[in-house]
């Protein structure tokens, strides 16, 4: 199925598409050179938002789920990318342990995702088993999926230095569990095995402000390469170090940051004659995946926040990496907030908000889908839907493979801007990869073991 | 279009398929380790023959044409593979010069192949131009293809150290010209640029006996890995160093080699209860692409060869690399012959012989097609059709993309042997890659510059 998209196809986004297509060789070379110096995350998925007048990544998931929603046509690409990844990480690899999220055995949809991931790694030449770190799973469990496939989950066995299953000693451990409730001790100090992504990629450890700093810097360079205003692919943002919002003065400080970001957006909207109402999102810097996100059009709304919301926003990150208490991300961290320009979502399938998600493995784009929020049928004038709700995957959302699988797949340099689906998706792939480069900078900068290499 | 195949689906080939599937992780790991030590040819295409009772590569083309016949679905794989290749060869690459075969501008079919190759390299992030070494092409020529696309061919400009076009200085030169009529001086000593494949990959320089030695050795190791008789994936062969066949004694010597190979085949046929009539092919070791190939069922046929055929068979290779006259492949080379087991072709589309061809770039399988010899409608009992005819591309042959593009692409471990198209094609991809590894061994062993690295 190919979605019919009702996207604003006029204005700056078409120019952006044209710039991206024209610069294709330069862009690919730029990425090639970046990857000589930096290591891509093992796999990831970037959520993009196409406002019609700008296009920006709004989230990047380092433990991506939903692999089962990708078009079957794209799987050989994922296999090829997985081969490239494994070849670099551990060419001698035989066994790979995939660690699912907890309670995996109760969620058939999620299990299908695991089956697909296992298929990719198996086809890349690995023996793959599922090793659960869920304390509730004490013995091996076989689950029969509706389509007849049988999935086996085994509880992991931790020895002093290794994580294993009975009769299965992996050299590589891939997490499909973002450890949102904290880094478990069972995954620490596995110095003999490759643990991917590394623990400091978990959303409980990551700080949005680190990522944004890296992404901002990259868009400046990338904008120069393309000859475009970096704002077209970035979001205005500010890191508001206010402290706990339940404390005096903190709310004022946060309101000032909101005002500043809103003012910047207003200026840009004026410059590009955009007749939307600017808005910002606010979330705690270390709030992770489950954290509260506020959406505001006016900084004065902040003063009106009730105590409960303030407390919820300020809630400290649940955990950082144990034993790293002396690091910059220690438990004494003062709450701070990221205020980001909100990007209206201009893509619709029927009347539903459709969010493109681009899947990557190693340095390659290997697929994509539209996440469709069926329950959020809001009037088209209010295009920010989905922003304040945590991007839940089970809250009525469904998925449509991105038309990456439509012929022709490859960008068509001659086509009219906005008219060619592959050209739009090439642009999406470029932006998603830019977010991926930013993550690689971020993870290098926050690597707790970095001293040992320096 | 997916061909309907009338392949013998019983017997050893199904067991082979099962062995290959069962060993998938071990096979992929084996290739991974091979590619740590050896360099794959930049691109290549392997012709396979599936006899129903055995499967063997019968030719490997290092300057593959026909890219336009690949399924559009497979192109992203080729792009990804090209990216991987370029990243290793020259990550800073901006400009790539593609050198077509001579007379390219007179052949629209071939030009479409070039357009497709250019598209692949452009999407991998390179500026691509066509640089002709055809002395007949003195000025730039634009050709409009029937589909409206315009292709421009420029004559190359040779400076002391570099090959360029006007205003286009490539760092990488890719040959899509196998230099069958000899290595031109204009391509020699380009020490500042990457020339791919290297000149000693040309069929005028290659010796079949070198390749066969490498392939035989590999099948022994690979057979052990799979737990199979290597004969199931290899061909009996012998290098007959007889000298010129017009000289006394040479014919007898060649007949003895034929007898020996035929006896070996007979033994294998008996072992596997194959009721085919064994046959062999004979060709001069350095006969290149255009050389004569004889097909014989009985060594006594050799004595009956007329003088003309003998002379044609013994014709010396047209050229080796100029300036390498002191090397092992000098002009004084004594004619020798390779006698190889003939493999009957068991695949049919309707009543036509269908030959699978697997395309590879860097270390990856990126597509495939069936080459169909429409004019060779021979009775099914005579399955060796196409053997003695040079595998011409314009002699009425046409092309059908291999059903690599059919869902699901990926091997399905549970399927009944012989029943799953992706499983058969996985096996084809494995055999094609085995031939590719053999080529990489061969090119290492025959590299005229090897001393400088040693």
Describe this structure in words.
- The structure is a homodimer of 454-residue chains.
- Chain A has 454 residues and is of the alpha+beta class.
- Among the domains of chain A are: 87-205, Glutamate-cysteine ligase, N-terminal domain (Rossmann fold, 3-Layer(aba) Sandwich); 236-341, Dna Ligase, domain 1.
- The first copy, chain A, is 30% helix and 20% strand.
- Chain A has 10 helices and 18 strands.
- Chain A has helices at residues 12-22, 24-37, 75-89, 108-123, 208-226, 250-271, 300-303, 307-314, 421-445, 450-453; strands at residues 43-50, 55-61, 95-100, 127-132, 141-144, 150-155, 157-158, 163-164, 172-176, 194-196, 237-240, 280-284, 294-296, 337-341, 348-349, 352-361, 364-373, 397-401.
- In chain A, the strands form 4 sheets. In chain A, strands 1, 2, 15, 16, 17 and 18 form a 6-stranded antiparallel sheet that branches. A 6-stranded mixed sheet of chain A has the order 5-6-4-3-9-10, with helices on one face. Chain A has a 4-stranded antiparallel sheet with strand order 11-14-12-13, sandwiched between helices.
- In chain A, strand 16 and strand 17 (364-373) form a beta hairpin.
- In chain A, helix 5 (208-226) packs across helix 9.
- The longest helix of chain A has 25 residues, at 421-445.
- Chain A is globular and about 65 Å long.
- The model of chain A is unreliable at 318-330 and 377-395 (pLDDT under 50).
- Chains A and B meet through helix 2, helix 3 and helix 4 of A and helix 2, helix 3 and helix 4 of B.
């Amino acid at each position: 199925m190919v979605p019919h998209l009702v996207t604003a196809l006029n204005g700056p986004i078409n120019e952006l598409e044209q710039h991206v297509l024209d610069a294709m060789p330069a862009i690919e070379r730029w990425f090639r050179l970046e990857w000589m110096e930096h290591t891509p995350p093992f796999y990831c998925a970037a959520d993009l938002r196409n406002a019609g007048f700008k296009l920006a990544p709004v989230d990047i998931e380092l433990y991506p789920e939903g692999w089962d929603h990708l078009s079957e046509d794209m799987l050989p690409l994922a296999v090829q990318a997985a081969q490239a990844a494994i070849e670099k990480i551990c060419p001698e690899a035989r066994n790979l342990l995939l660690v699912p999220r907890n309670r995996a055995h109760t969620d058939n949809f999620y299990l299908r995702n695991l089956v697909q991931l296992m298929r990719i790694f198996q086809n890349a030449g690995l023996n793959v088993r599922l090793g659960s770190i869920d304390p509730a799973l004490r013995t091996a469990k076989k689950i029969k999926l509706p389509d007849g496939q049988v999935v086996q989950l085994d509880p992991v066995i931790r020895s002093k230095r290794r994580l294993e299953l009975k009769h299965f000693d992996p050299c590589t451990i891939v997490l499909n569990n973002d450890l949102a409730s904290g880094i478990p001790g069972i995954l620490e100090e596995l110095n003999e095995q490759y643990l991917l992504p590394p623990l400091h990629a978990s959303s409980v450890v990551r700080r949005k402000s680190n990522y944004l700093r890296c992404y901002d810097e990259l868009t400046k360079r990338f904008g120069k390469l393309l000859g475009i205003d970096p704002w077209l692919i970035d979001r205005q943002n500010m890191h508001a170090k206010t402290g706990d919002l339940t404390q005096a003065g903190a709310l004022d400080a946060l309101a000032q940051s909101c005002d500043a970001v809103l003012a910047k957006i207003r200026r840009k909207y004026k410059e590009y004659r955009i007749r939307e109402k600017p808005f910002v999102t606010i979330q705690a810097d270390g709030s992770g995946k489950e954290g509260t996100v506020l959406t505001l059009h006016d900084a004065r709304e902040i003063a009106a926040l009730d105590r409960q919301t303030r407390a919820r926003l300020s809630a400290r990150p649940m955990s950082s990496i144990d034993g790293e208490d002396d690091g910059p991300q220690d438990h004494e961290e003062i709450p701070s907030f990221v205020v980001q320009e909100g990007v209206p979502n201009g893509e619709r399938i029927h009347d539903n908000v459709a969010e493109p998600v681009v899947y990557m493995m190693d340095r390659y784009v290997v697929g994509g889908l539209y996440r469709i929020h069926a329950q959020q049928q809001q009037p088209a004038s209010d295009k920010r839907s989905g922003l304040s709700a945590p991007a839940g995957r089970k809250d009525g959302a469904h998925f449509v493979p991105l038309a990456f699988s439509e012929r022709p797949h490859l960008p068509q340099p001659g086509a009219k801007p906005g008219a060619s689906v592959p050209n739009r998706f090439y642009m999406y792939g470029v932006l998603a990869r830019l977010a991926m480069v930013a993550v690689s900078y971020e993870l290098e900068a926050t690597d707790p073991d970095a001293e040992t290499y320096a």
